[in-house]
Design a protein that fits this description.
Shape: globular
Number of strands: 7
Strand order of the largest sheet: 1-3-2-4-5-6-7
Structural class: alpha/beta
Helix content: 25-40%
Order of helices and strands: HEEHEHHEHEEHEH
Distance between the termini: 45 Å
Number of helices: 7
Largest sheet: 7 strands, mixed
Strand content: 15-25%
Radius of gyration: 18 Å
Amino acid sequence: MELTAHRRARRTRRRRHRVPSRRRRPRPRLRRPPGGPGPFPGVVLAHHMPGWDELYREFARRFADHGYTAICPDLYCRTGHGEPDDVAAAARAAGGLVDDTVVADLVAARDLLRALPTANGKVGVFGTCSGGRHALLAASKAGGFDAVADLWGGGVVASPEDLVPQRPVSVLDYTADLDAPLLGLFGDEDQFPTPELVDRHEEELKKHGKEYEFHRYADAGHGFFYYHRSAYRADSAMDGWAKVFDFFGRHLSTGS
């Protein structure tokens, strides 16, 4: 069946890309801005615990609509495939993702974005919940990102009893190595991380003289961007999205 130019363009923008990484490769999904020759900045999305689900497909579209080439690797691809909740449950049963593998996947996605002919050379990393922790981990341990957005990342501040073979080092301990500006969005009603843990993180950033900005929402808890859940707070979510795009706009635009 013949495709219209519009449908051909949409199919091209949705083309799958393979990303080199360790062991089995993650299945990334690439979203391109809807028009124009570029150059465009890039954003790597580190998905949350439910995995590469409808929410993160929506997030990728949102970034593309705002002029970013967005890629969201399926970090659970080594666990299996199927419904996001089932795959996430299998990942939890296996003890969770291995930090070094996640970092390798996110770095590979970053390098793919930089290699695109439409790229402007700037790439940020964004994540919510466990993805917020993973985004910050990659930016701190591997470096090489131009901006990082951690939205209520749980487990950034980890006590010794929280450390396991898959996650052997607290992300907080890598703060000195963070080489990109950091945006953090948090709800004051969140219990993971609690406001006290966010304070502890902020203290460490100040100690090492890092460039960061934290914003806290008094009426919000964990996952307040998640429009399909009772945790959704529309006003806070819209303000938060505005802060994300302002932050990335300042740090990822050509010439920034």
